[in-house]
């Protein structure tokens, strides 16, 4: 599988690509809009609001229990 080949990806985008998940999967798990998830996954400089980060991290921790916010967002 070559998920994400050739796409500009953020740390969150690289994680879901590596784990075989889609942006749609992340949107459903985090209850964040598909457009916001797309921006989070494709723009490494994008910093969402604190409430969105919290929702995304809750979903990421279902995949990677030891995940820290600082691992995925430059805060």
TrEMBL record:
Domain HTH cro/C1-type residues, every copy: 18-73
SMART domains referenced in this protein's UniProt entry, alphabetically: HTH_XRE
GO molecular function terms listed in the Swiss-Prot or TrEMBL record: DNA binding
InterPro entries: Cro/C1-type_HTH (IPR001387), Lambda_DNA-bd_dom_sf (IPR010982)
Protein name: HTH cro/C1-type domain-containing protein
Source organism of this protein record: Heyndrickxia sporothermodurans
């Amino acid at each position: 599988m070559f998920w994400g080949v050739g796409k500009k990806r953020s740390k969150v985008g690289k994680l879901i690509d590596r784990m075989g998940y889609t942006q749609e999967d992340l949107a459903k798990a985090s209850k964040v809009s598909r457009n916001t998830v797309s921006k989070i996954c494709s723009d490494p400089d994008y910093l969402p609001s604190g409430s969105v980060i919290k929702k995304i991290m809750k979903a990421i921790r279902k995949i990677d229990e030891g995940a820290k916010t600082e691992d995925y967002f430059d805060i």
